């Protein structure tokens, strides 16, 4: 019996009387499941990114013709894709500037309130 106990002590996967090996196996299986989920998530993200890239390439190719762009005082010829990109960037910048949080909420005094 003592030899079996010594062998069990050296074997990390040997069953212990308190069920420690079962807990170790469960923890190992959970770690493997987590790694598998992470791999699946990365694969799904890569597939979505590839699909977006393909759509963008098709979008650029389909919108590469020159179009007139009329400003208030002048007009220019530009590729439609660049017109779309510039207007999207300007819209994003305007949205950011209008929606960004203030450094200090309105109505708050800088110092401590009197009588506090």
Helices and strands, with pairings:
Blueprint: H1 2-10, H2 20-62, E1 66-70, E2 75-79, H3 80-99
Antiparallel strand pairs: 1-2
| Overall pLDDT confidence | 79
Number of strands: 2
User: Quick one: overall form?
Assistant: flat
The biggest beta sheet reads: 2 strands, antiparallel
Strand order of the largest sheet: 1-2
Secondary structure class reads mainly alpha
Rg of Cα set: 32 Å
Strand content: 5-15%
What is the CA–CA distance across the termini? 76 Å
Low-confidence runs of at least 5 consecutive residues: none
Question: Helical percent range?
Answer: 55-70%
Counted by DSSP, the helix tally is: 3
Q: Which sequence of SSEs, written as H and E, runs from N to C? A: HHEEH
Structural account:
The chain has helices at 2-10, 20-62, 80-99, and strands spanning 66-70, 75-79. By secondary structure, it is mainly alpha-helical. Among the domains are: 23-62; 66-98, no CATH class.
Labels describing this entry:
116 residues, mainly alpha
Q: What's this, in brief?
A:
Helix content is 62%, strand content 9%.
């Amino acid at each position: 019996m003592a030899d079996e106990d010594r062998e069990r002590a050296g074997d990390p996967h040997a069953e212990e009387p308190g069920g420690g090996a079962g807990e170790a196996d469960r923890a190992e299986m959970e770690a493997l499941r987590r790694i598998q989920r992470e791999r699946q998530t990365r694969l799904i993200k890569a597939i979505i990114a590839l699909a977006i890239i393909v759509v963008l390439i098709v979008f650029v190719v389909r919108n590469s013709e020159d179009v007139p762009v009329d400003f208030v005082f002048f007009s220019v010829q530009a590729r439609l894709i660049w017109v779309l990109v510039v207007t999207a960037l300007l819209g994003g910048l305007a949205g950011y500037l209008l929606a960004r949080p203030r450094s200090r909420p309105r109505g708050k005094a800088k110092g401590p309130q009197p009588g506090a």
